[in-house]
Amino acid sequence: MAKTILSFREQKERGEKISVLTAYDYPMAMLMDEVGVDGILVGDSLGNAVMGMENTLGVTMEIMLHHLKMVRAAVKEALVIGDMPFLSYQISLEEAVRNAGRLVAEGGAHAVKLEGSARMFGNVIHGIIRAGIPVMGHIGLTPQS
């Protein structure tokens, strides 16, 4: 059965562990989905891990969409989470909602992830949620670097 935000909540309420791994392409996402990973994050870390960038700051929405489409094409069961790259949600609420919508509508993400606290981006998080898009938070060990 395909994973949803609701199924994640139910797993948490039952005290079950939720597995989320990062994939950047079709073959890796297919393998993760086949072994039953609950969620697959398409992270902006692809800048470092796949593209050889020094950091994630050069990862654009277009790059994220390209990789999201590959991952989404491979996945049948896992929840796919699209990472919002640097400056895709920091400029304005409208820009954040538009970009989150692109990750869902164009990229096929089931949810989006952004880095930062509710104190920093509470209005952005609430705006994206009001648009009907689930948001996953992440404080990260090396955010946007």
Main-sheet strand order equals: 1-2-3-4-5
- Percent helix range: 40-55%
* Major beta-sheet overview: 5 strands, parallel
* Order of secondary-structure elements: HEHEHHEHEHE
CATH architecture heading: Alpha-Beta Barrel
Q: What does the oligomeric state look like here?
A: single chain
Count every beta strand, where a strand is a DSSP E run of 2 or more residues.
5
Count of alpha and pi helical runs: 6
pLDDT averaged residue by residue:
94
Can I get a quick summary?
This protein has helices spanning 5-13, 26-34, 46-49, 61-74, 93-105, 118-130; strands at 20-22, 39-42, 79-83, 111-115, 135-138. It is an alpha/beta fold and 145 residues long.
Please characterize this protein's 3D structure.
With 145 residues, the protein is of the alpha/beta class. The model has no long low-confidence stretch (mean pLDDT 94). It has helices spanning 5-13, 26-34, 46-49, 61-74, 93-105, 118-130; strands spanning 20-22, 39-42, 79-83, 111-115, 135-138. It has six helices and five strands. Strand 3, helix 5 and strand 4 form a beta-alpha-beta unit. The chain has a five-stranded parallel sheet with strand order 1-2-3-4-5. It has one domain (18-138): Alpha-Beta Barrel (TIM Barrel). The protein starts with a helix and ends in a 7-residue tail after the last strand.
